[in-house]
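Example 3.2
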Amino acid sequence: MPYGPPIQIESSAPSGYIVLALVMAGLNLVLLAVVAGLILYRMRSPGFSTSLSLPALKRGLSTSVIVVMILAFMWLVRDLLIPFGLAFFLASLLDPVVTKMQKRGIPRGRGVGYIFAGIFLGLILAITFVLPRAADQIKAITDHPEQYEKALVDQADVLYNQNLTTAKTLGMKERPSKFIKSAPVTAAATGALNSVKASLMALSGKVLWFVIIPLSLFYFLLDFQVLRAKAISFFPVVTRPNIDKMSAEVVDIFSQYIRGLAKVCLLYGITAMIIAFVVGVPYAIFLGLAAGALYAVPYAGPAIAIAGSGVLALTTGRGGGYATVVVILFLIMHVSFDYGVTPRVVGGSVGLHPLLNVFALMVGATFFGIYGMLLAVPVAACVQMVLLYFFPHLSDRPNISEVAKPAPDELVPRAEALEPQPALD
């Protein structure tokens, strides 16, 4: 008896859930590292005893039960906690800015008001001038992909015919139109743009979030230091100074890194948009927004943005020389940011060695993909901070001149001392 086609169940959870889950996972890993380090530090203290009394055991057991019940309740209402979690995370990033304003004599409430005024002004400008044009450009690309496919294929064939000898030497025996049409290039590009479009539509459906997040962020920023002090008060009195110092450094690392990365991505997107406008690349606003967002993804993101600029330049029909010039300009921009702007704005905020930076990015990409690469650097910096706190000698740089200095004469064995002595009668 036929049962018909199987039912396809699609997940409707937006990608923001995944980002939030990874952010919270990274923070939890850092917190676990801090707690483990404090336990190890406590075990190394002279007065530490491994014996547990019955009252202490009961208190620990009851505390564990309460923690498990709280976590179970939070898991049941996890969908309701997402906007509050996002607001608290944003508050932790913006709290150092408010604290600096307080040190300059600005009351905390007024500083929070200044931040909200800046955010509100930026949103008004984006909604008025940028987002509608970007949405129109995305719609134009997704509605007529066959036109851009034909223009791209025609330009690829022209380049192939102009460089036929070189192409055959490289092993390309057929025109690009043969394998470009057979490969799912257009389908992949259209699917990516449609996913962006769907994500924006899903975000617009969370109307209540646009009320909960700003309101919660306002009150979290006002009382962030009070909430932080209250959370630290749950720890034993002996460990509170260490928890206070280390948690402040963790928040500072994440705050500086993400705020610096946001500034660089904004500048990168604006620069890409200006270059596209000047040289006449179509859909300059969409290209600038995409380049700015992709710059946050190390290595892969900028490569996609640069390749995309070349593809859009080819669809104009101005030839391969024009596309080459566009790609070269975007490469120059990218190198200028990588070696000029980004190290000054972001590089000094985490204090990671370049090799550790690359290693952390590879580990993040291996376990969590693109989102892991976004959070790998601040998480690695927090782990480094914890290790340096408990093992300060790891930060000491050896004196090369002292290492290379020859040993003193009294430590060098003399030749006559090494000669065999005559046996005594």
